[in-house]
C-alpha cells in the first residue's frame, strides 16, 4: 500500500493529489491520460481567453467554456456513482460531483492566474473567488453558478436545522489534505454502495495512513472484511471499536456479531 502524507498533498495541485489517490485505490486509473487531458484543456482555455483583458470577464469566460462548451456538469442521473470521484472518469464523461468538478476547475483557474480556492462547506464543496479589495464570492462547481450568502445560509439550515447560523468558519479556505480526506470518504461510501469491497478496503487502508487507529475507520474496515468473508479479522476490528468507543449506539450490535463470529468455525482461505 502506497504511503501518502499531508505534506505530499500540500505540495501539489488538488487535482493531481486526487489522481494519486485514485491510482492508489484503483490501479487501472488512467493517470497519464488524465494528465494529458488536463494539459490539453488548459491549452484550449489559454487560446480561448487570449483576447480577454478584464480579469473578471476572463474568469467568466472560463466558466462558460467549462460548463457550456465543454459541457462539464453535475451527474444528475447517478450522483453517488464512484465514477464521479475518479478524475479520469470525470474528464472522460464530463460529469462529476462538486469536489471532482471543482478540483479540475481550480487547476485550470490557478494555471490561468485566477484567485480561486477550495471551501469544504458543510453541505458540499465550493469554490471561493477573491478579487483584490473585494469581498469573496462563491461558486457551486456542480453547475458553475454563483451562490449568494442567503442561499448558503438556507443550505446550512437544511443540513443542520433551523437554529444553524452561517459563520466565517464555514467559508474558510481548505487545504488539500482536508479536501482529499473528504474525497476519500466519499469514494469509499460510493464503492461500498456498489459492493466493490476490495477497492473500498484500499480506501480504508489509505485513510488509516493519515489517521492511524481511527476507531470508526477500523470499524468500517471490519465491515468490509466481513463482506469479504474474512470474519476473524473483522471480529478483531469490531472488538477494537468496542474497546475504544464503549458508548457508541452500535456497540451492542457489534458485540453480537463478534460473539457469533467467535462461535463459528475458522475457515482457512
From TrEMBL:
Protein name per its UniProtKB record: SirB1 family protein
**What residues form the membrane-spanning segments?**
none
Q: Which InterPro entries match?
A: SirB1_N, TPR-like_helical_dom_sf
The protein's matches in Pfam families, at most eight in alphabetical order, are given as:
TPR_9 (PF13371), Transglut_core2 (PF13369)
Tell me the ranges covered by the Protein SirB1 N-terminal domain, including all copies: 35-184
Q: Which family does it belong to?
A: Belongs to the UPF0162 family.
Amino acid at each position: 500500500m502506497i504511503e501518502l502524507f499531508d505534506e505530499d498533498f500540500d505540495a501539489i495541485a488538488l487535482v493531481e493529489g486526487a489522481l494519486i489517490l485514485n491510482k492508489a485505490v484503483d490501479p487501472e486509473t488512467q493517470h497519464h491520460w488524465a494528465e494529458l487531458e488536463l494539459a490539453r484543456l488548459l491549452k484550449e482555455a489559454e487560446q480561448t481567453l487570449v483576447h480577454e483583458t478584464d480579469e473578471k470577464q476572463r474568469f467568466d469566460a472560463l466558466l462558460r467554456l467549462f460548463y457550456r462548451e465543454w459541457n462539464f456538469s453535475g451527474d444528475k442521473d447517478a450522483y453517488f456513482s464512484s465514477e464521479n470521484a475518479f478524475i479520469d472518469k470525470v474528464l472522460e464523461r464530463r460529469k462529476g460531483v462538486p469536489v471532482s468538478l471543482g478540483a479540475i476547475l481550480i487547476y485550470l483557474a490557478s494555471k490561468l492566474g485566477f484567485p480561486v480556492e477550495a471551501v469544504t462547506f458543510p453541505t458540499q464543496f465550493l469554490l471561493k473567488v477573491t478579487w483584490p479589495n473585494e469581498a469573496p464570492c462563491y461558486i457551486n462547481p456542480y453547475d458553475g453558478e454563483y451562490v449568494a450568502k442567503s442561499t448558503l445560509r438556507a443550505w446550512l439550515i437544511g443540513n443542520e436545522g433551523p437554529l444553524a447560523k452561517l459563520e466565517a468558519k464555514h467559508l474558510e479556505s481548505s487545504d488539500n489534505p482536508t479536501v482529499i480526506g473528504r474525497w476519500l470518504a466519499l469514494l469509499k461510501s460510493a464503492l461500498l454502495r456498489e459492493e466493490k469491497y476490495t477497492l473500498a478496503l484500499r480506501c480504508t487502508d489509505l485513510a488509516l495512513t493519515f489517521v492511524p487507529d481511527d476507531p470508526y475507520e477500523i470499524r468500517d474496515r471490519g465491515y468490509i472484511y466481513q463482506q469479504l468473508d474474512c470474519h476473524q479479522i473483522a471480529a478483531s476490528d469490531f472488538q477494537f471499536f468496542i474497546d475504544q468507543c464503549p458508548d457508541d449506539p452500535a456497540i451492542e450490535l457489534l458485540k453480537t456479531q463478534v460473539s457469533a463470529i467467535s462461535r463459528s468455525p475458522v475457515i482457512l482461505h
